[in-house]
Design goal:
Number of strands: 0
Strand content: under 5%
Helix content: 55-70%
Structural class: mainly alpha
Order of helices and strands: HHH
Shape: elongated
Largest sheet: none
Radius of gyration: 16 Å
Distance between the termini: 45 Å
Amino acid sequence: MVILSRSLDISKNELARYFTSFLNSTFRLWLAEVRFVTSLPAPICTAFSS
């Protein structure tokens, strides 16, 4: 969370408040969800196939 707060130029406490207040989550749970979603296979788009 330190790297993210530095890159966004906000304090770690303010970032933690954002996660708890607006996302109803913690940084760890949010990051775990991001990692899980990115590990899923990409959907196959057949709209442009011949």
